[in-house]
Amino acid sequence: MFFVMGINDRREDIDFTQTVICDVCGSYGRYSVFMICSVLTLFFIPVFKWNKRYYVEMSCCHTLYELNSETAEALIYGDINEIRPEDLTLIKQNNHSYKRCTYCGYETEENFEFCPKCGNRF
Ligand SMILES: [Zn+2]
Ligand SMILES: [Zn+2]
After folding, report:
1. Cα dihedral sign for 102, 90, 49, 9?
2. How far, in Å, is the centroid of ligand 1 from the Cα of 40?
3. Is 122 part of any domain?
4. Cα 36 to ligand 1 centre (Å)
5. Which DSSP helix (H) or strand (E) runs through 73?
6. How far does the centroid of ligand 1 lie from the alpha carbon of residue 93, in Å?
7. Residue 74 lies in a domain
């Protein structure tokens, strides 16, 4: 008799989306929520999960937030249906902030005040 045991970190996506205006890049983005947890597997079947951490990634600029676990669990159980900014802690902000013109959609990493394509103010 022998056991095949293992411990891994695994990522599970949580089926929740919310469209928001991004604080970081200013464009419309979606929160995508996922969980990282440690999993004990026995014969490659997960038997125990612990150390759950929840994160939110912005679809627009891939800014990463940590989501407080009470809110995350309420979301999973369907008790709430939105994430508020105070539930999030910024972890990683994308280095190059880019601007996107709301009139023509032009994107630039330069710190222009006016859009070089259509001339409207960013
Ligand atoms: Zn963004
Ligand atoms: Zn423009």
Report:
1. positive
2. 35
3. no
4. 22
5. helix 69-76
6. 9
7. yes
Higher pLDDT, 72 or 110: 72
Structural domain includes residue 33:
yes
Ligand 1 centroid to Cα of residue 37, in Å, is: 25
Average confidence (pLDDT) over 10-21? 92
* pLDDT above 90: residue 105: no
Side-chain half-sphere CA neighbours of 24 within 13 A: 22
What is the residue range of 20's domain? 5-95
Ligand nearest the Cα atom of residue 20: 1
Domain count, the chain: 1
* Averaged pLDDT, 41-53: 91
- Going by pLDDT thresholds of 50, 70 and 90, the confidence category of residue 114 is confident
**In the predicted model, what is the mean pLDDT of residues 12-22?**
92
Bridge partners (DSSP) of residue 49 are 39
CA of 107 to the centre of ligand 1 (A): 13
59 near 35, Cβ under 8 Å? no
